[in-house]
Amino acid sequence: MRLLVTGGAGFIGKNFIRLVHELRPAWRVTNLDALTYAASLCGLPDDSERYRFVRGDIRDPKAAAWAMEEQSAVVHFAAESHVDRSILSSGEFVSTNVLGTQVLLDTARRLGVPTFIQVSTDEVYGSLGVADPPFREDTPLAPRSPYAATKAAADLLVRSYHETHDMDVRITRCSNNYGPYQFPEKLLPLSIVNALHGRRIPIYGDGRQRRDWIHVKDHCRAILTVLENGQPGEVYNIGAEQETENLAAVRAVLRETGASEDLIRFVSDRPGHDRRYAMDASKIRKELDWEPRYRFDEGLAQTVAWYQANESWWRPLLGEDYQAYYQTQYGAR
Ligand code: NAD
Ligand code: TYD
Question: What is the pTM of this model?
Answer without folding.
Answer: 0.99
